Amino acid sequence: MSKGKVDALLGIVFGDEGKGKVVDVFTPKYDIVARFAGGPNAGHTIIFEGKKFVLRSIPSGIFAEDKVNIIGNGCVIAPDLFMAEARELEAAGYDLRSRLHISKRAHLILPTHRVLDRAYEAAKGKNKVGTTGKGIGPTYSEKASRTGLRVGDILDGFETKYKTLKARHEEILRNLNYTDYDITNEEKLWMEGVEYMRSFPLTDTEIEINKALREGKSVLAEGAQGTMLDIDHGTYPFVSSSSTVCGGVCTGLGVAPNSIGEVFGIFKAYSTRVGSGPFPVELFDETGDKIREIGHEYGAVTGRNRRCGWVDLVALRYAIMVNGVTQLIMMKSDVLDTFPTIKVCVAYEKDGVRTTDMPFDTEGWQAVYEELPGWQTELTKMTSEAEFPQAFRNYVKYLEQQLETPITILSVGPDRAQTIVR
Ligand code: GDP
Ligand code: IMO
Ligand code: MG
After folding, report:
1. Residue bearing the CA closest to ligand 1, atom 16
2. Which of 240, 348, 354, 358 has the highest CB neighbour number within 10 Å of its CB?
3. 3-class secondary-structure state, position 327
4. Which of 7, 24, 31, 44 is catalytic?
5. Which of 12, 13, 21, 53 is the pocket-test mutation for ligand 1 (most atoms within 8 Å of CB)?
6. Is 16 one of the annotated active-site residues of the chain?
7. Cα-atom radius of gyration of the chain, to the nearest Å?
8. Residues 131-172: tens digit of each pLDDT
9. In angstroms, what CA-CA distances link 312 with 149, 229, 289, 343, 413?
10. Cis bond leading into 237, ω under 30°?
11. Where does residue 336 fall: left (phi above 0), alpha (psi -120 to 50 degrees), or beta otherwise?
12. What average pLDDT score do residues 79-97 get?
């Protein structure tokens, strides 16, 4: 934790690395936890004291009663889904209204944005992105084309603004011949969600955060998605539509680059990807199935099978570079407990050409592997590094050497308690 600074915790692969779990573990050390990008396409799982929560738009710092949580200007928010998520937390006894602040500059996901998401995907034929269907792409596109609606808009003359934008969407949908949809019920809930959101502090969160920083307070920026899904640095066009990288923290919260402190890069002891797009380390065999089964690699938002493979050093090195990662956090080490050997992708190869740099397009590249012995020991009950088997230590050391970055936290199970700080 750095006083007067924003530390960033970023997924550095294809998302679902375990960001929610670690943000929850880190929160007691920080004054403010803030989401800076994405929306309900995220699914962040937090498990403690026999309880499990999956958060979509609300930051994972919400379980520590005295901390301010912020949904920053770089996020997109669906009022109906936000209401459902917040009500679930309220029903579980968490008081949100005084300490969950929403940026007036965050963009609103309309029901028709979700229809557009489906319509654009349908029109793509074989090249579907495999989106979460939450309207993310259309909402960010509209932000960039300067026609979107923002949270602050619900405070003044909202009805007219909403109707105008909805009519525009309906026209686009008619032009796409995508008319078989009915948002009547969805829209009712959405409007209810807008009313509900009005009872939360809708603020200029960038001013609030900067004031806190000047007072020497500490902020944790919670990433969503991962670097390989970043709009600029991911496997375009098979990406999400926001800046998921460290630069996105600055634009998505309104903080200066020199206010960034530590950059925690979080990854799993293996790789997963959900949705379409190139994935050189993907395993189509029973090893891949075994990783999926043991790691419960099914999407937290859509329930889809996550594609599984070995850890990818080409992707990790690239992500460490573009984010300026200062510390690594390795999750789900326990999932590999039973494997006799562990592979690591050290390079990509295509048409006799080998590279360790991330290519412009990862389609068609084959992974080149090195193999390490597995530890074949259960890690889940271990509480300190001293208990780790030698083969696991060797795996960690190998990754640190290859990535030239220290791995300072190791996670050995989904529970808050199964986290080992080195
Ligand atoms: P996020 O989107 O980055 O927050 O990650 P998700 O919540 O989508 O996916 C991570 C999944 O792995 C969740 O089901 C977590 O409960 C689980 N998880 C997190 N850390 C560990 C770990 O160290 N071991 C195991 N077995 N599961 C973990
Ligand atoms: P968290 O925060 C994993 C993927 C989708 C799809 C692509 C674009 O839980 O790590 P979108 O709906 O954003 O337009 O979909 O990005 N995707 C994620 N994959 N974890 C996520 O979030 C994701 N958010 C989006 O599957 O391939
Ligand atoms: Mg997730």
Report:
1. 414
2. 240
3. strand
4. 44
5. 21
6. yes
7. 21
8. 999 999 999 999 999 999 999 999 999 999 999 999 999 999
9. 39, 15, 18, 9, 21
10. yes
11. alpha
12. 96
